[in-house]
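Researcher: Next sequence.
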Amino acid sequence: MYHRSFAFVVLAVGISLAGYAAFQADAYISQVRAEQIVVQEVETEPVTIFARDLPRGYLITPDDLTTIEYVVGEIVVAVVDSPVGQYTTRAVSAGQPVVATAVSEEDVPLQGTFIRVRRGTEVTRACIAFCDEVES
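Model: Next structure:
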């Protein structure tokens, strides 16, 4: 009986020591990994973006723009630095960079949009036209 109790105590102490050793090894490995992490500074540049959603053909004002820092090389298209006084060539969303294809120095004429109207089995093509001047 004495031998069984002694063997149980030795087993319990052995398991406890193994658990403590595993805990210490994990702490050491975590410390080594933390020392290996190197903070890399990223070079950024200011980029002009739209501050709010704008429709197609909108005359851009300074209030419509803002700047944020982008990582150098993250944007691969031509960015326009000062689009104030230019017009949007398409609808744009807030937060989009001001790229050359989104603005034009000339007013963009509004064009009609074609839609299909389905009535039963008959399909009719209709045009929605935008007017900015009305002659009477």
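Model: The radius of gyration is 34 Å. The chain has two domains: 1-40, 44-104.
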